[in-house]
Amino acid sequence: MAGLMVGFGHYTHAIVRGIPASLAKEALRSSQSEVDVVNARREHEAYVEVLGTRLGLEVVELPADESLPDCVFVEDAAVVCGDTALITRPGAESRRRETEAMKGALKDLNLNIVEMTDENATLDGGDVLFTGREFFVGLSKRTNQRGAEILADAFKDYAVSTVPVLEGLHLKSFCSMGGPGLIVIGSSEPAQKALKIMQQMSDHRYDKLTVPDDLAANCIYMNLPNKGHVLLHPTAEEFPESVKVFEKLKDHMLIPVSNMEKVKVDGALTCCSVLINKKGNI
Amino acid sequence: MTTEAGSETEVKEKAEESAAQPDRSEKAKEETQEVPNAEGEEKEKEKEKEGKEGKGIARYLPTWLKKQKSQSQTSPTKEGPPTEEAVSKVTQEEDGPAPEVNGHAEEEEEEEEEKEEKEAVKSEQVKEKEAESHSTASADTEPAKEEKVEESAEKAADETTVTTEGEGAEEQKKEQEGEEEGGGGGGGGEEEEEEEGHTSIFQSPLRLVRKTKMKLMACHVALLDGTDFTCEVEKRAKGQYLFFKVCEHLNLMEKDYFGLSYTDSHEQKCWLDPTKEIKRQIRSNNWQFVFNVKFYPPDPSLLTEDITRYLLCLQLREDVASGRLPCSFVTHALLGSYTLQAEVGDYEPDQPRPLDNVSQLTFAPNQSKEMEEKILELHKSHRGMTPAQADTQFLENAKKLSMYGVDLHHAKDSEGVDIMLGVCANGLLVYKDRLRINRFAWPKILKISYKRNNFYIKIRPGETEQFESTVGFKLQNHRSAKRLWKVCVENHSFFRLNAPEPPTKARFLTLGSKFRYSGRTQAQTRVASSLIDRPAPNFERTSSKRISRSLDGAPVINITEASSENGREPHLELQSDSKSPMRVHGDNIYVRHSNLMLEDHDKTQEDVLKHQASISQLKRSFMEAPPPSPPQPNQWEKRLTSSPATTIRIQQQQHVTTEVEIEETVVVQEVSIAPKPGLVTVTASSPADPPAEQETREQEVTVEEEEVVVAEEAKVSKQESVSSESESEEEAEYHPNVSVSICHTQIPEEKEEEEEQEEEAEDKTAAEQGMLPPDAPSLPAEVSQAVEATSQEAEEDLEAEKSKNAEEEKEAERGMEERTGDPMMTPEEAPNGHALPEESAKGMVASAEEEEEPTMNGEASLAEAEPRPQVICCSEPPVVKTEMVTISDTFAAQKTEIATKEVPIVHTETKTITYEAAQLDGNSDGEPGVLMTAQTITSESLCTTTTTHITKMLKGGLSETRIEKRIVITGDCDIDHDQALAQAIKEAKEQHPDMSVTRVVVHKETELAEEED
């Protein structure tokens, strides 16, 4: 049965997208770094395989678009909660067209589509943290107030609080959900500050899991039948200290997923998929 | 002399009247009964205030006012005044008070109300005249009675042991009452009767008329199921009466979550204050109300009865359908499906056109066919679910909605950006459009206040922050700010009090708070509902009549409109604690402990020195004497205590008290020397006590710390309320900060207008009260009458118009009384008390007026506080030195002059040092208030008696909580009052860091007899 806020982390579908060759040079990035497209694609394949094969999600893989170098980061193009999907208006102009394919895929999944048509609004899905009980929207370079308002309008059941993102690309560049009521947060000052704001803004109590590396705080949590708590987190190769922290989560099935190449273009684990729960929905 | 007689006469008259006119008394009783504790208290307070303040203030009053009052007052008492005169007097009185009342009114609304009342009064006057036959008759009878009374009074005086000064007055009142009860015997045993009786002399005619002709108003209450409940209530009925009637009709026991709302003249939805008269809140003659959920229980599953959940469901369905409670398509469908299941039952596949039924109901603002189909689809899945289960499921989903129970108010931030402020169980939410941009949990809020159209919250500093910060919002107007403040106060108290209180707090007297919220807290109501022992009531689930109507655009619409933007904007007037802005502004209070000096206006320095010396001697002698009888709760107190809300309030108040800071602006030393009549504080309170007191010769250093809890004026500070709330909770800290700081600072600015009004009101009241004193000396009898009259007038007028002011005054008076007087003292009786002193004075004078001016002195002593006591009303720190000689008669019964003579003459020197915050006084006096709640907590240790009075007053929507803590240190001869005072204050402050000490009264009672001898 349905109901509000039940089954946080329950997913049945995942939407991903291929990596265009243009990623290497044209993808937006905050640091000057060379990206090996081959390695990136290999990484991504492993990522998709975890979602589909290991975790049993039904994976919808959209083809890469060379004109959209950042198109692999599908998270920014849509926010899905329940059976409502908000098609965003990405803050980076070069990415606006990424939503087209996403919209089509979501429609195919019979989700209620809400589009962000306001030209004053920008929203990247990477700035949207859904905790299961409410939304936090980071106000960043990519996301503005108007975008957050539209998101709030799309998901009326939930409180939508705004959180200033002073450093980093997105809100989820330094945090993510690690379980029901558990926020994984980086240890940097901006990250901790953002966490405090979130805690203040919320009527609910959240536990926090602080990891030494901000980037390692971006994980994917799922609650899957027969598997229980599942956490996809960066590898020890990248963030050895942070992984030690993850390993303290005894109840979680921990799945390290390499993300060494995509991180060079500010891609984190959550960026590369849109997770959907179809069965549980009413 | 006269005064005394008058007072007694009044009483007797009352008693007689009551006896003679059973109807009246009955009516009066009814009224009193109807009125929650508060009324009785208020009345008492008013009386006291009038009595005390009146005299003092009288000086300042214009002569014409005095004359009027005096006349009116006198008329009744005077012998055989023609009925016409009496009538005219009555009318005059009425007229006189009314204007004053206006001045008092802070709020427009109130003023209006008052005016209305006045008008009503006038109209009633005619009736009264008609009825006057009664009054006249009473008047005629009165004279004779008066005589009797006087005699009795004298006797009483003897018996009475006496009271000193202001305190004495209170006590005296009590005594009088006691006498009345005892002597009058036949008269009316019940306090209420007596009280009314006092008032009744003048009022009685009016009241009688009113009662007899009491208009019944037809009330239309829109219920949640869409039906209308119509009933008739007396025009003067309080909100509570109607609310209970509705709850009775609904068979609802868990009623604390609900309330009645009405739409005010500004199209704003307001909560009907249960403690105030309906007609004062509703401007129009259209008595239309809506029964609504006021506090949305965060977890409806914890409700005890299904009927309660059902009503909550009805409210939420309406909220959802109107869009006030936004939710997604899916949620709309889900909630709708549960509604269907609850009201229609299982889905019937055979039904020909199921969709038709669905589309007849409104589930969402924009209900689409698609949604209806979804609802139907989901409905099918609920097969087998009982209505109660469906309701439960409905609530389980609805409660998770982010806007569940959030009361939205339009506002602007400091930069003028439109925002919404949402008040909910957890705190205050700030929205910009639909986004939550900030949140202030109740524990984070130290103080809530409003000033003009600004709304402020003071935020507790974070872990890394050193200073608390204040966040301000602009509301549309003052009314909106006040409304928001009230809602905050109420919600805070209702929900926040849940938290278990830390043991520390528990020890203090914490009362529910200044908070105006008068009802139970959620915690309390849960306890109460857990005790519900009745079979689940059967109730009919009307199939969403209301919802269906909404389609038609009927009743639902109203709700939607009203609430949609502003959300629900209930005005919980009840809860407003802030009595007077002045008080609230405790910051400005200066402490002048060092200045405490005993000054005898009446006496020379030598006398003073003598007194002091004698005092020290007396102290020694007193050492031996038994400690004063422990303060006994007044009737008022008892009532208060009995009230359900008491506990909570107590807690809150205590916190408030905690805040007490020692800041005294004015040091008033009152040494009243009443020659013969020794004032036994106790006397009044308990018949038995007086003798004991007399015997004991008590040396009491009474340090009464009145914490003007800073009545947070609604304007200035919601904080207070908050504070009160916090008090109740763990965060006592809140309160302190709130009350003190806010009050002082804010008051000046915000309440300029209010203050002025208040001041005016104060003046008026003072004038009224004061008028008496001047006259009194010359015309004792008249004076007493005047007092009575004033009190009566005050009661009526005050109730109607000035009720607020009066209440405040009363509170102030109480405070005064308490401070000066004994713990026992009954505020109500204070007026009478004056009379008693006089009486005592008479007897005293005759027999033993050893000390200086007998009657005069006696009166002075009685009035003492008032005229000189400027403390109360006046900004000036008057130094009054009153030496009271209390002659205590061992046998109250023997009140004859003889007795007096026989009675050991104990000279009591009473030094009363009062520190007052000038601001506080003004507020208290000026503003009319409705007494919301009052509690008294008394704790005793070996030589220390601590009495805490917590009073909640509602003034014009502002609630003021006043915690008055009286610490009586009974000492040996050697007690250094300064030291004791300092110690007491220190301790009090330790307990309640934020408490402000408004007034410190050092009361020394010494037996002068020895010395003199």
Key phrases:
heterodimer; A: 282 residues; alpha/beta; three-stranded mixed beta sheet; 6 helices; 15 strands; globular; B: 1013 residues; alpha+beta; six-stranded mixed beta sheet; five-stranded mixed beta sheet; 37 helices; 22 strands; disordered C terminus; hydrolase (chain A); Dimethylarginine dimethylaminohydrolase 1 (chain A); amino acid binding (chain A); dimethylargininase activity (chain A)
So how many helices of chain A?
A: 6
Oligomer description: heterodimer
Class from helix and strand fractions of chain B: alpha+beta
Envelope shape of chain B: globular
Contiguous runs where pLDDT drops below 50 for at least 5 residues of chain A: none
Question: If strands are numbered along the chain, what order do they take across the biggest sheet of chain B?
Answer: 13-21-15-20-19-18
Amino- and carboxy-terminal Cα gap of chain A: 7 Å
pLDDT averaged over residues of chain A: 91
Shape of chain A: globular
Sheet with most strands of chain A = 3 strands, mixed
Proportion of residues in helical segments of chain B: 40-55%
Query: Number of helical segments of chain B?
Result: 37
Q: Largest sheet of chain B, described in full?
A: 6 strands, mixed
Uncertain stretches of chain B: 1-211, 499-515, 544-609, 618-929, 1006-1013
Structure description:
- The complex is a heterodimer of chains A (282) and B (1013).
- By secondary structure, chain A is of the alpha/beta class.
- Chain A is 22% helix and 25% strand.
- Chain A is built from 6 helices and 15 strands.
- Chain A has helices spanning 23-26, 37-54, 98-108, 145-154, 189-201, 240-246, and strands spanning 13-17, 58-62, 78-81, 84-87, 112-115, 128-130, 134-139, 159-164, 175-179, 182-186, 207-211, 220-224, 228-233, 252-256, 274-276.
- Chain A has a 3-stranded mixed beta sheet, sandwiched between helices.
- In chain A, strand 6 (128-130) and strand 7 (134-139) form a beta hairpin.
- The longest helix of chain A has 18 residues, at 37-54.
- Chain A is globular and about 40 Å long.
- Chain B has 1013 residues and is α+β, with helices and mostly antiparallel strands.
- Mean pLDDT of chain B is 55; it is low at 1-211, 499-515, 544-609, 618-929 and 1006-1013.
- Chain B has a 6-stranded mixed beta sheet, with helices on both faces. Chain B has a 5-stranded mixed beta sheet with strand order 2-1-5-3-4.
- In chain B, strand 8 (427-432) and strand 9 form a beta hairpin.
- Chain B starts with a helix and ends with a helix.
- In chain B, 53% of the residues lie in helices and 15% in strands.
- The A-B interface holds A 1-5, 82-84, 112, 133-134, 137, 145, 148-149, 152-153, 155-162, 196, 200-203, 281-282 and B 326-331, 333-334, 374, 378, 381, 396-397, 400-402, 426, 432-439, 441, 444, 462.
